[in-house]
Amino acid sequence: MSAPRVVIVGSGGRLGAALLREWRAAGENATGFPRAGLDLANDAQIRAVLEPLDFDVLVNCAAQTNVDRCETHPDEAHRINALAVQTLGEIAASKGARALHISTDYVFDGAKTTPYTEEDPAEPISIYGASKRAGETLLLEVSERHLVVRVSWVFGPDRPSFIDAILKRALAGPQVDAIADKIAVPTYTLDCARLLRPFLREVKEGGALHLCNAGECTWQRYGQAALDCAAAGGAPLQARVVAPLKMADIAAFIARRPPYSAMSTEKLQRLTGLTPRPWQAAVEEYVRGKLSDRL
Predict the structure, then answer these.
(1) How far is 236 from 170, CA to CA, in rounded Å?
(2) CA distance 23 to 157
(3) Within a 10 A sphere around the Cβ of 19, how many other Cβ atoms?
(4) What is the pLDDT of residues 29-53, one digit of tens each?
(5) CB 3.0–4.6 Å: which of 48, 77, 270, 278 could bond 131 by disulfide?
(6) Which stretches of the chain score pLDDT less than 70?
(7) How many CB atoms lie within 10 A of CB 74?
(8) Which residues pair with 98 in a beta bridge?
(9) CA dihedral (153, 188, 60, 11) positive or negative
(10) Which pLDDT does position 58 carry in this prediction?
(11) What is the pLDDT of residue 37?
(12) Which whole-number Å values give the CA distances from 188 to 44, 66, 104, in the listed order?
């Protein structure tokens, strides 16, 4: 069977770049469009660029992900995170192709204390979450074959993320802190590439899917794990302990954040037979890679 023709929108981002590189290395016929080459705020450009192409799978990794900017620019958030997603879904469906759209744990309100499943109601509490939820709904209204993939706390080698910021601060000074009253699950982009790849060909399930590493943690625990790995690897850290912060203490926050948004991956495991590894193991691999590159 020939490899599916895959188009990745948002291939310059942290996740999109990893999918493009890892899937090409695995033999997939993948083409990427970074933000500079495809403006999701411009419907006419989306159609002009993508409608002439032949492809079997369209993967959308692009979004307006600045949670607080979405709160102050709701029209922009809706245009990029919802209306553009509908357009992408329509283009894919017109070709008999499938759309895989990357969404977020922020579609949940955080009221639960056990991992969210795909059957739990999505009740966002921010403009960002609402715009992403609208995109999910519009995409699946176009075709039940399309797939919404919810991820959380994405990190990886292609663009800096929380881990990189924590390590940079710990190398530069004696004090590091992170939020201790918000719980979710890190998602390593290289693991995401492996776990999502079956949906390019063998697994045809549509609807919603949760994809992240195993376990759950606070930002504080997440950061502490990164510092512990760096310290064990001999990094010259000035700070070795991550102090706790509360979300309410972050003056820069405009939008509300769900206090608990860990997600269950039981559906992913059932459909693919693949089991996500613990987030701690993924963080350790990533930090070791940075140490080998001298941070």
Answers:
(1) 9
(2) 15
(3) 30
(4) 999 999 888 999 999 999 999 999 9
(5) 77
(6) 1-3, 294-295
(7) 14
(8) 57
(9) positive
(10) 98
(11) 83
(12) 33, 19, 14
Q: How many other β-carbons are positioned within 10 Å of the β-carbon of residue 1? A: 5
CB within 8 A of 209, min separation 6: which ones?
118, 147, 148, 149, 150, 199, 267, 268, 271
Quote the Cα angle for 16-20-25, to 5°.
Answer: 150
Alpha-carbon Rg for the chain, nearest whole angstrom, is 19
Query: For the chain, how many residues are written?
Result: 295
CB 123: neighbour CB atoms within 10 A? 14
Beta bridge partners of 178: 244
Contact assessment for residue 219 and residue 211, using Cβ atoms and an 8 Å cutoff = no
Place of tokens 């590159």: 293
Helical segments of the chain, H only: 14-25, 43-50, 67-72, 74-78, 84-94, 127-142, 162-172, 189-196, 219-232, 266-272, 279-292
Q: What is the pLDDT of residue 170?
A: 96
Task: Record the tokens describing residue 141, joined without a space.
Answer: 């209204």
Q: What local confidence, expressed as pLDDT, does residue 260 receive?
A: 98
Q: Write the CB contacts of 283 (distance below 8 Å, at least 6 apart in sequence).
A: 155, 163, 186, 188, 222, 225, 226, 229
| Angstrom distance (rounded) from CA 25 to CA 17 | 12
**Can you tell me which residue has the tokens 């310059």?**
12
The pair of structure tokens assigned to 211 is 């994809």
Residue found under tokens 């890892």: 22
